[in-house]
Each structure stands twice: as structure tokens, then as C-alpha cells.
Amino acid sequence: ERYPKSDDRALVLSRAAKAQLDNGELQDAAQTYELYSATFKDKDNAPSALFEAGLLYERLGNVSEQRRIFEEFIDVYRSRSGEDWRILNATLRLAKIAQARNRKSKSRKLLQQVIAEFNRRGQQPGSRAAGVAAEASYTLLDPNYQRFTKIRLKGSAKRQQGIIKKKLKDLLGLVKNYSSINTTYLSRTWMICSILRQGKLWKDMNTTLREAPEPQGMSDERMGLYLDAMDAQLAKFEDAAIRYYQKAVEKSREYKV
After folding, report:
1. CA dist 233 to 71, 140, 239, Å?
2. What are residue 86's phi and psi, to 5 degrees?
3. Do residues 31 and 69 make contact, with C-beta atoms less than 8 angstroms apart?
4. Cα→Cα distances 251→80, 136, 190, Å
5. What is the model's pTM?
6. Residue 129 in contact with residue 83, Cβ under 8 Å?
């Protein structure tokens, strides 16, 4: 108490936090890590201590404290050298909190901020920070993916063809966006996730056609031509899905992910 900022107290606090963590006293450990970071802000491990407090509150399910800690982390250490990954990670976790509370606009803004910070800080593809930015990019695409999978065929043959044309255009756009995640960030985990998602896109396109109701008012000859064309498309979409699934398996084995 006589030397509240001495190296001895720093060591004591650090060891106390670790002991509390080892004993499963997560709440106490979080408070001790936060106290350490507040008392010894200039120490190299002060940022990691505050970040650890946020992770512990996350484990405890204390969302308000988790959010407070990560917001404080970003505010205090935004300009600190070497904290790029944690800044991006804290921002991503805040985005997930907003998403869980159905604050879609706030979540999207934070996810975009992750990507902007990745670029602004000059982080490299394949780095830990790239993994965070890749996850943010993947998450931003999810609403479009969900909308895509809800599109189904209905109505006349002409109307169905219009829906197919529009959905195929959306599919190709999403496939391109997921490919961009892979080439931009070179994150092994999110590369595999993106390849799997591309396979699911093609598989959903196959399912959309397979579940299509037969159009009414067609002659037997026209119906035969229609079904032949559908069968050809079904085979094409299924083959594409299989290729992506196989590629995902190959990458998973290659990267041991």
C-alpha cells in the first residue's frame, strides 16, 4: 500500500490474477486484471491485461461489463504500437454484442470499422489481424446469403425463368465476394468457411430448381423440353457444389484446420 505503483505490486497483482484464473474465480480475476491495467498503464502487458478482463467477462456472460471493457480498450490503446490485432478483435466483439441485441445497423458499422482499421493500419494478409478482418467480411455477407437461400420458384414458366435468372446473378455475385475474402486476407480458417459457403450457394441453387413446381398450361412437348433443360441445370449446379466441397476438404487437410 505504501508503494502502490512499485514493480513489486505489479508482480503481486499479476500473480494474483493468474491464481484467481487458475482457481476458476473469473469475476475476481477480471477485476484484478482491470486493476493491473489501470495502475500500470505504461507496462507492456497492460493492454493484454485489460483485454483479458474483457474476455473473462465474456466467459461470465456479463455483456455490459464486456462491452465496457472493450470500448475502454479501444479508447485507451487505439494508438498504442503493437495492439493492432487486439483493437480489431475488440471491435469485432463489440459488433457481435450489437448483433446479438438485434442492433443491425450498429453491428454493420462496427464490422465495417474492423475492415477499415485493418487497411488503415497496414496489416498483412495471413496475419492474425487478417483473420479478424476476414471474419468481419464473412459476417457482413451473411444477410445477403440468408436472403438468397429464401428465394424459391413459383408461378408460370416465364416467371420462374425470371426468378432463376435473378437468383443466378445473385449467386455469381456472392461467389465472387466470398472469393475476395480468400484472396484479400489469406486466412486459412475463413478461407475454408468461404469455400464451404460457396458450395452451399450452388447447392441451394440446385435445391431451388429441384423443388420448383411444374408450370401449368404447357403442352407435352414444351414440358418435355422444359424438364430436360431443368435436368441439365440441376446437374451443372450439383457439380459446382461438389467441386467447392471437395476444395474445402483439400484445404482443410492441407492447413490441418
Report:
1. 50, 29, 10
2. -70, -35
3. no
4. 36, 21, 11
5. 0.91
6. no
